Automatic annotation (TrEMBL):
Chief place of localization: mitochondrion
Listed InterPro entries: Cyt_c-like_dom_sf (IPR036909), Cyt_c1 (IPR002326), Cyt_c1_TM_anchor_C (IPR021157)
Cofactor binding note: Binds 1 heme c group covalently per subunit.
Cofactors: heme c
Binding, heme c: 27, 30-31, 150
Gene Ontology process terms (BP): mitochondrial electron transport, ubiquinol to cytochrome c
Assembly information from the UniProt record: Component of the ubiquinol-cytochrome c oxidoreductase (cytochrome b-c1 complex, complex III, CIII), a multisubunit enzyme composed of 11 subunits. The complex is composed of 3 respiratory subunits cytochrome b, cytochrome c1 and Rieske protein UQCRFS1, 2 core protein subunits UQCRC1/QCR1 and UQCRC2/QCR2, and 6 low-molecular weight protein subunits UQCRH/QCR6, UQCRB/QCR7, UQCRQ/QCR8, UQCR10/QCR9, UQCR11/QCR10 and subunit 9, the cleavage product of Rieske protein UQCRFS1.
Top-level taxonomic group: Eukaryota
Stated family: Belongs to the cytochrome c family.
GO CC, one annotated term: mitochondrial inner membrane
GO molecular function: electron transfer activity; heme binding; metal ion binding
Name the UniProt record assigns to this protein: Cytochrome c
Organism: Chaetura pelagica (Chimney swift)
Keywords for this protein: Electron transport, Heme, Iron, Membrane, Metal-binding, Mitochondrion, Mitochondrion inner membrane, Respiratory chain, Transmembrane, Transmembrane helix, Transport
Length: 231
């Protein structure tokens, strides 16, 4: 089970930071995350200075300037993650006609969420006897049709984590799935904390209203008016 399924906090910042590292070094070569901005990383996986440094590594087209010309500038934390390809046609041409999906909401867009993504990443194997896979495709029992154009993206020690965590296949898959779950709902933790606060406030208000109803309003409601005519 995934920690975010039952607790207020999605996961530790260490796991999210490793997951971002996996995305940056492995996944971003083909997959975009165009709905996630560098500012979303602040306070979650990186400090503000680190997020600014990451953004400045990217060249972003901006403009027009005073001459009406577009120009390139270093990225800002308000910029969104860059796309690996300029358009969908270029992405298809570089991937044998297959369009790599954007990963911003991939966990929410697939039945099974993290479980499906984790199984897909670690489920590559040789096809069973009697099953043939067309050239350019790879056998994966967890993918619809069991043949996928994406080559196995991860394996043991494909990268070295900055914090020294052993980069086994299962650890890499777990961290990237955790990061993708957070990326699909960056406001998840804040929303749940606000929900808990609202429940606590509602409980206090309910107790206060019950007291007022029982000891104040009931007296007013049950009182009787007596008319005494003047003598």
């Amino acid at each position: 089970p995934w920690k975010g399924d039952r607790e207020v906090t999605t996961s530790s910042s260490c796991s999210l930071r490793r997951g971002f590292q996996v995305y940056k070094q492995v996944c971003s070569a083909c997959h975009s995350m165009e709905y996630l901005a560098f500012r979303n990383l602040i306070g979650v996986t990186h400090t503000e200075e680190e997020a600014k440094a990451l953004a400045e590594e990217v060249e972003v087209q901006d403009g027009p300037d005073e001459n009406g010309e577009m120009f390139m500038r270093p990225g800002k934390i308000s910029d969104y993650f860059p796309k690996p390809y300029p358009n969908a046609e270029a992405a298809r041409a570089a991937n044998n006609g297959a369009l790599p999906p954007d990963l911003s909401y991939i966990v929410n867009a697939r039945h099974g969420g993290e479980d499906y993504v984790f199984s897909l990443l670690t489920g590559y194997c040789d096809p069973p006897a009697g099953v043939t896979v067309r050239e350019g495709l790879h056998y994966n029992p967890y993918f619809p049709g069991q043949a996928i154009g994406m080559a196995p993206p991860i394996y043991n020690e494909i990268l070295e984590f900055d914090d020294g965590t052993p980069a086994t296949m299962s650890q890499i898959a777990k961290d990237i799935c955790t990061f993708l779950r957070w990326a699909a709902e960056p406001e998840h933790d804040h929303r749940k904390r606000m929900g808990l606060k609202m429940l606590m406030i509602s409980g206090l208000l309910t107790s206060l209203l019950f007291y007022l109803k029982r000891h104040k309003w009931s007296v007013l409601k049950s009182r009787k008016m007596v008319y005494r005519p003047p003598k």
